[in-house]
Design a protein that fits this description.
The protein has helices spanning 22-39, 44-73, 77-101, 138-149, 163-175, 193-198, 211-223, 246-258, 275-290, 310-325, 357-360, 376-384, 399-408, 441-446; strands at residues 4-6, 13-16, 105-107, 116-123, 126-130, 153-157, 183-185, 204-208, 228-231, 236-240, 268-274, 329-332, 347-350, 367-373, 388-389, 393-395, 415-416, 431-432, 435-436, 449-456. The protein is an alpha/beta fold. The structure holds NADP nicotinamide-adenine-dinucleotide phosphate.
């Protein structure tokens, strides 16, 4: 895939970039390793000052950066600006809390025959982040802010269609005052990821993206014995029970499916509705989807812009055509508009069966599928009949049902009476083929820390224990 900015509004190639040569790549790896040797010794206070400066830079650049993101991948400018501000908030969050999150974890010394015993959370070294285009700043920042606060050094291999946003990330940390080479962007294709991952100077990796990309990186990292975090695809269920606030659920359902032009791993994709309220919910949901404005993402009145790539739209169309060919009914949308740009309308399908591809595959565009079930057992069975296990949503005001969904939905995240979202305060990640490990919160930061056990005995002659 060429490393280039191609405008999804009209398909014009605006800027192309050469990939790093082997020599340039080696030079950057050497600089990253050198940077780690001194950066790991900086204090949390120093890192926090730089991280807060990064937040200031982001806020100052928010309007220009948002327009750049829209030009590279088509999200609406208002969504892009909100994403930039969210990144700034995450920088401040980790600046404020990293020292506490990574404070030594003390262990009762008598239990381990020590005078003091604790776990020290130390940075691992140079961490490679392979990132997707769909939240081009947020995906990269939710890796970078905790990793840098922990004392790691970051290498970003961003998606090939967002090179300018990727280069901005490197510039951001430089302008914020971080020491040279603490965060570098590598303009390389996916074929060069293996070389970086196997390099002795790289300690660990994180990948957010598709299943096949995750499998490839996990296999190489496994062979090289390097830890990884994988955030992969999802096909989140959105269950609506009779006690739900149907108007609110339908409005949120439309947003949850069509946010980011339908290209979000945690978008609700499978709507599973109790038969008692199915007709009413379908009508409200269809109206909410039909009311969304499809069009120019630079216009503040637009809700849904173009898909990021031409192939992305072809993939969505093929999944819809497959379902319709096998008997699904189109309630809303379902046909691409004429004219330039990779637009696809908010779409609602009913009559989905297991023979249809979208029953199992992720639809990375604004296409919702609605299923009707008779009771909570059937809702859970259908919700869990998925290879994915990222986020999940359940709408009910019954406390027993809320507990049942929290307990039995097979997912990394359960949001009740709301849509799945990411917050710096909450762990984010999935199970099954949605990946492993967690981002955000303290757990996300500790994924790239060495949990070093430190045991201190008597300085003078005392009890010397020997056991494993
Ligand atoms: P993708 O094709 O897997 O690309 C993601 C990143 O991986 C890009 O930087 C890409 O580089 C690189 N890549 C692709 N194949 C690779 C390989 N074999 N080895 C190493 N690197 C490889 O995914 P996408 O289409 O951009 O993103 C959409 C997918 O990401 C969806 O499935 C979505 O659900 C998932 N996603 C998950 C989360 C989460 O947190 N769980 C968040 C956002 C998106 P190139 O661009 O150079 O190919």
């Amino acid at each position: 895939m060429a490393i280039a900015t191609v405008n999804p509004m009209d398909g014009t190639t605006l800027k192309t970039f050469d990939a790093l040569t082997a020599e340039e790549l080696d030079n950057r790896l050497a600089r990253a390793a050198a940077a780690f040797r001194s950066y790991r010794l900086t204090s949390y206070d120093e890192r926090a000052d730089w991280m807060r400066a990064a937040a200031d830079v982001l806020e100052g650049d928010a309007d220009d950066l948002a327009r750049l993101m829209t030009t590279e991948m088509g999200k609406t400018v208002k969504a892009a600006k909100a994403e930039v501000l969210k990144c700034a908030a995450a920088c401040r969050h980790y600046a404020d809390h990293a020292a506490t999150m990574l404070a030594d974890t003390e262990v009762e010394p008598a239990a381990v025959k020590a005078t003091r015993a604790y776990v020290r959370w130390q940075p691992m070294g140079v961490v490679l982040a392979v990132m997707p285009w769909n939240f081009p700043m947020w995906q990269a920042m939710r890796f970078a802010a905790p990793a840098l606060m922990a004392g790691n050094v970051g290498l970003l291999k961003h998606a090939s269609n967002v090179p300018q946003t990727a280069l901005y990330m490197e510039e951001l940390f430089r302008r914020a005052g971080f020491p040279a080479d603490v965060f570098q962007t590598l303009l390389i294709g996916s074929g060069d990821v293996e070389k970086v991952l196997r390099d002795d100077r790289v300690a660990a990796a994180t990948l957010t993206g598709s299943g096949p990309a995750g499998q490839s990186v996990a296999a190489i990292a496994g062979d090289a014995l390097k830890p990884t975090v994988l955030e992969l695809g999802g096909s989140d269920p959105f269950v609506v029970m009779p006690s739900a606030d149907l108007e609110k659920a339908a409005q949120v359902a439309a947003t949850a499916r069509c946010q980011n032009n339908g290209q979000s791993c945690i978008a609700a994709k499978r709507f599973i509705v109790h038969a008692d309220v199915a007709e009413r919910f379908q009508s409200l949901f269809a109206s909410a989807l039909a009311a969304l404005t499809l069009g120019d993402p630079t216009d503040d009145a637009t809700d849904v812009g173009p898909l990021a790539t031409e192939q992305g739209r072809v993939d969505v169309e093929e999944l819809v055509e497959d379902a319709v060919g096998k008997g699904a009914t189109v309630v809303v949308g379902g046909t691409r508009p004429d004219g330039p740009g990779w637009y696809y309308p908010p779409t609602l399908l009913t009559g989905i069966t297991p023979e249809m591809r979208m029953y199992r595959e992720e639809v990375f565009g604004p296409v919702a599928q609605l299923h009707v079930v008779e009771d909570i057992d059937a809702a859970l069975e259908l919700a869990n009949d998925s290879d994915f296990g990222l986020g999940s949503n359940a709408w009910t005001s019954d406390p027993d049902e809320q507990e049942r969904f929290a307990r039995d939905l097979e997912a990394g995240m359960v949001f009740i009476n709301g849509m799945t979202a990411s917050y710096p305060e909450l762990p984010f990640g999935g199970i099954k083929t949605s990946g492993y490990g967690r981002e955000l919160a303290d757990l996300g930061m500790k994924e790239f820390c060495n949990a070093k056990t430190v045991w201190v005995g008597e300085s003078a002659a005392g009890d010397i224990s020997s056991s494993e």
